[in-house]
Structures are given as C-alpha cells and as structure tokens.
Amino acid sequence: MEGSALGRVYADGEVVVRQGEPGDCMFTLQEGRLEVLTHQEGRGEVQIGIMEKGAIFGEMAIFEREVRSATVRALGEARVLTIDKKSFLRRIQEDPSLAFNLVRIMSKRIRRLSGQAQDRRAGSDRRTLGDRRHTNRRTSA
Predict the structure, then answer these.
(1) What global pTM score does this model have?
(2) Residue 99: which domain range?
(3) Three-state secondary structure along the chain?
(4) pLDDT tens, position by position, for the chain (141 residues)?
(5) Domains in the chain, number
(6) Cys-Cys link to 26, which of 46, 59, 60, 121 (CB 3.0-4.6 A)?
(7) 140 occurs within a structural domain
(8) Are both 99 and 41 inside the same structural domain?
(9) Same domain, 18 and 52
C-alpha cells in the first residue's frame, strides 16, 4: 500500500483495477506478479492470465473511455506504475517508438484472443458434430 515516485506497492490480493470500473490510465508492472480475472456468469471470478515484471495493462483506457474489461489483482507484493493519458502522449512525442511497441503488444493480444476464439469455435463445432452423429444413430436405428 505504500506509494512512491516509482510506483505504488500493492499487497498480496489487493486489487489494482476492477472489472466494470471506468478507466483513464494504463499501468506497467515494475516488480512482482499480477493475476487477471474476469467475472463470468454462473462461474464467478475466473483467472485468465498472470502478468510478470514488465507487463503493460489497462492501455485501452488511454484510447477509449470505457470500463475495465478485467480485474487485476496482486499475487504477492507487486509494484505498479500508473501512466495517465497526458503523460503517455508526452512520452510518445519524446520517443515515437513507444507507440510502435504498444501497438505491437496490443497486436499480440488480439492475435492470442483470436486464436482462443477459434479454438472455442472449433471445440463447439466438434461437440455439435458429435451431437448430430449421436442423434443420427438414434434416428436411423
């Protein structure tokens, strides 16, 4: 819970951002580990990832004033630096390669999520096909 110019220290289990809350800044994980959770209907909180030192998160809030898409919580003690939109834009002007690196990170996330969606669709298609085969066996008997 201590704060400093180098970021804020979060205690084990402390929430950095909460799904559904408005966001207006992004973060970088300086030390420690964080877990990423989403609330899923009928399942409660589900861990969808773990972030390690150097991870950047919450960047969508820099571009859109939308609510947070996930909850991020400390796994043990973690130091997190908050970056507001004004500071981010100033740093981009100083070093445009930062924008490229952020787009690269976001692109990797989109690619990973697209792959996960395809895997889910393929699994659903296999289950549907299996259901059809099972139904066809019963109706042709």
Answers:
(1) 0.71
(2) 95-128
(3) CCEECCEEEECCCCEEECCCCECCEEEEEEEEEEEEEEEECCCEEEEEEEECCCCEECCHHHHCCCECCCEEEEEEEEEEEEEEHHHHHHHHHHCCHHHHHHHHHHHHHHHHHHHHHHHHHHHHHHHHHHHHHHHHHHHHC
(4) 444 457 999 999 999 999 999 999 999 999 999 999 999 888 899 999 999 999 999 988 888 888 999 999 999 999 999 999 899 889 889 998 888 888 888 888 788 778 777 777 787 666 555 555 555 555 445
(5) 2
(6) 59
(7) no
(8) no
(9) yes
